[in-house]
Each structure stands twice: as structure tokens, then as C-alpha cells.
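Example record

One chain of 508 residues, shown exactly as stored in the release files.
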Amino acid sequence: MQLPSLGAARGRRAAIAAASALALAGGAATFVALPAGAALPTSYAGNAYPATLAAPSGDKQQSKVWRASNAWWGVLISPAKGVPTIQELLANHTWRDTGVVVDTRADSTADVWYAANTLYTVSRTATGNIQYSRFTLSASRVWSKVTGFPVTVAAGGTESASLARDSGGTIWATWTQGARVWYAKSAGTNDKTWTKALLPVSDNTVAADDVSAILAFNGKIGIGYSDQQSDAFHFAIHTDGAAAGTWKLETPLAGADLVDDHISLKAVGGDARVFAAVKTSLDAAGAADDATLIYVLRRNADGTWTKTRGASVGDKATRAQLFLDRENSRAYLLTSGPATGGTIYYKTAPFVGMKWARGRGAPLITAAGSVLNDVSVAKGSTTGASDMAAIASDTANHRYYHAEIPVQAADEQAPISQTAINSAATGAGEITTTWPLATDDRGITAYDVYMNNAKISTITITAANENLRTFTFTKTGLAAGTYRFAVVAKDAAGNSGIKRTASAVVLP
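Predicted C-alpha cells for this chain:
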């Protein structure tokens, strides 16, 4: 699906909070000022959901928001009905509950796909059947469930289920169950009749907590799945119109501890490329902070795969999500940090020459006292004509939050400066200053070093030092006196972070 370019873009934010949020009491916005020219998304508090639900915006393989009729919509828990319903994101940044129920089971989670005034959904619970429903949107912007739905795709519970629609109108779904990878498909455009089968590839046996995800791309269906038994991430491909049992298996990532059960699959309609964000298990294996925690994989038009580092073990990032800006040919990577939840961060990189900023990136959704996790975005691509909506769950206070991400080609995000800087005398006439890496949505290119408010050096980021998590600058030949060292992080567009100054050092 390609999202339509509808309506004028929302005005770009000139100086918005790095930690903006709507206060849970009173609804007032609270801000932490950034340098002039910085542009960050704003976080908005939404409705509460029952404390009995873990994180209804999850999970990693599913998308819960879509663009239709010049608005963003989502599947969220209804405050009135206590089950997932279709809701509209209004211009005042609140959600309007249509009351149209997606699944009568409160603990279900759904994956959605929208095209041509039709919403396709597949939903699951840990113990209940996998269900499929179809909804239509009228010219007067009213949603209705089509008669005869839901239908059962498969019996029994699963950790996740996702769906895709191929070029011929057949609906496909995938899930794991009994440590095997399964798929099901509708009888062509008759989506009230389904058949299921084991994925017919050489290795469809996985660990008990492995998962699968599905997407449509370039006249094909692709199923990506984690295989912790074989330490591999697999991608199976079926050409539209071919016999149902005809699949090709590819393995874009393999190696000890390189696989966990986190997958986000995305593609741009009409484009042969596929993008996947996958998490490794190197954090659980005790790897060093500079080891790769999240890979972003790209399947190229010729069928080869490229892998890039999306996050390192030291970033403590998790539950990665991708969304794609087809207009500017840029990918966005969203993660939760730390691993138990806290803040939703984002980074962006070009489709070609993809390289991700080190560190967690820039804050996307954040609020004081919240534990934000399980971010969800649209399955398809978007353009600069519409900000991108992302929802997340506050697992501490059982409340939804969302942000509307300014999708733009220009780099308007200032670096998020390192939070600590220390200076100390390390020898006669010598002071050493250390600081942790700064972060940015597109990457830090240099650090300017200041001594007593005068710039004395620039440390340029290169392939040799880009993976450092601590930077050091030593100044020698200093006379007796008092010295204050400071550091400013800069990005490729010339945006500068806040100057951080270390405590004074007195040399005798």
C-alpha cells in the first residue's frame, strides 16, 4: 500500500520539546526547550486502557495505524466498550472512538491493511483462534463491518499474526504455532474462505517463542521469520499467481546469537526492495556495548541483501519498527529504550547508502513518569504531505501515547547532547576531558571542543571512531590556572546540540 498524498502538510515545528508530553492531570503541555531551529515531534497523552492488558499497541510484527480519508486512524482499546475499536486521530491530537469493534476479545491484538476504502484485519490472542475481518469506509466517513465477519483463519492461540494482500486480491496471513511456521490464504478474492498450511520450505521448524511476519511487494508475498534453533532469520518468497506450495527461501542473516523474536517488515508499493528491522540476542549473550543489537536489512532489486547496524547493545533498544517515506526515499527506525520501556526514539536514513546514527536517536514519544513501549506505525509508506502517526503504550500508567512525526527531507533536528562531561588533571600541565556519545536522528559528524569558551579543536567522526561510546580529548602544555572544557555535538546539516561544560579544573 502507498498512502495517498492528501491535504496540506502540518506546519513544521520550529522549537519543540525534547521531552514534550501532555500532563496526565489537567492536560497541559510541558516542554524542555531545545536550541533555536530544532524540530522534534510532540508527545500526546491518550485514553487509558485496562490494567489487565499488557501493552495493546503491540506487537512488533503488527501495524495498528493507517491513513484514510485525509486522516490517521488506529485500532485502540475503546474506553466505553473495553475492546479494540476503530478510532480517528483528530486535528486537536485526540482520538475519536467510532465504536466499530474490531475484535470482541479485549486482549486481542490486530494487524491492519488499508486500501481503496477497505480495511483488512487479522487478530489473535494467546489462547484463542486467529480471526479475520473486513471493514468498509463510506463517502461520509463511516466505518462498517462487512456482513459475515469475523471468520476463523486458524484454531488456537499464537504470539503474533500478520496479514498482507497480494496483487490479485488474495489475502495472506502468517503466524507460528507449535514451533512451526504457518500461513493461510483466502480463496482468491473470496476472503470468507481460508486454507492454512505449513510454510513449505526446507526449514520451517523454529523455537517456541519465534515469530513470523508477512508483506506484499513487487508482485510477491514475503514471509520473514526468526529461527533461534538455527540462529537465522529467514525470508520465504511466493510469486503472485504461482501454486500455493511454491516458495523460495532466503537467509539474509545467520550466526550465533544474531536472532531474537523481533521483526518489522516494510516495503514501498511498486518497489522491488524489502526492509526488515530485526533484533539479535547479543545483549542476552553478554556481548560488548558496541556489538550490534538491531540490524536493518534491505533486500535489493537483484535479490541480494544488505545489512546495517540500527542499534548497538549499549543502546539498550528494543521492539524496533520501520516506516518508509517514499517521497524522500528515507527509512525511519523507531525503538523503545531501555529494553524494559521508557522512551520511544527514532532515527532516519536514506534507502540508498543506508547508514544509521549511533546511539538511540532522537526522542519521539516521551512523558514524565511513563514507561513507553510497543510503538506501532503504518504498514505502508508515507510522504511529506502528511506527518506520520505512531502510537505506544505506557505500561506504568496503562495509557496510550502518540506522536505525529514531521516527515521531511531537510535535517531540522538538532543533536541531543551528551548528558555528562568530566574533566580532570591527568599530568603536569595536562587536562583530559571525557564525554559519552551524543545522539541524533541522522548522525553526529563532529564534536567541537572548547576551553574557557574558546573553540580549540574539532573531533571528526570517522569509520575509526564512530562506534566509540566514550570520547576523550587531552590538552597538554597548560600553565597554572583555572580551566573549563566544553563540548558541542554537530550533525552534517550544521545543527548544533547544547554546549555541555565540565566542572572547572585548577592547575597549580
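Notes: The two ends are 68 Å apart (CA to CA).
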